[in-house]
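Write out the 3D structure for:
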Amino acid sequence: MERAISLNLATTRQQWGFAEAVDGCLRAGITAISPWRDQIAAIGLDEAARIVKANGLQVTGVCRGGMFPAETPAGRQANIDDNLRAIDEAAALNADCLVLVVGGLPGASKDIAGARQMVSDGIAAMLPHARASGVRIAIEPLHPMYAADRACVNTIDQALDICETLGETVGVAIDVYHVWWDPNLAQAIARAGRMKRIFAHHICDWLVPTKDMLLDRGMMGDGVIDLKGIRAMIEAAGFFGPQEVEIFSQDNWWKKPGDAVLATIKERVASVC
């Protein structure tokens, strides 16, 4: 079965702004996007919402909320306040979810369990506004290499444990780059399906060697991730939404013309995903 494609606008962030990326997607026949908050801010939320509505676009996610841990109560509250603003942005775009990169260890802390508690507490604090706004919250577990600075939630199971404590409007964004290595991946995806908590499916590839752990993601088919296998797990778990292509690639794909990037994405989704 053919699966729809969503373009995470990070994939062409060096080539295009928000409006240019939408135009490129429409030329390529792609009608779903996932923008980043800085890209929304650059064009203005009202204009971004107008473009989405005028073109009948699906917004599969807004990137990103999160970054909850902080050294002080005031810092933690400031982070929660920023997440409340992110909810408003996701609501204005009628996004399927607000994606959370939850944050790592605050300051010089070595207490990762404490950081995870700050994450759970932070999500709980934003939930009333999210629910009132009709915005679902998607925790994105990140690869363990980011545990200290970007995300202390590193597996689907850890994210689902938080979801279980907070209720049905909190789920997971499953990014293959971050979870492909997990020996419990199949069981975790099945668990997410039983809980009906899969809100997004992000794809790219893991290159060998990887030159930069943040900015050297691969185009699908250029690396070692079993994309078809993971897609089968996710579909068996009941999620059939668009596959959202999210590629950070400072030395390769960010240097190619945007239309060429989208053409390659369409070919690879059809052939290897």
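DSSP finds ten helices and nine strands in the chain.
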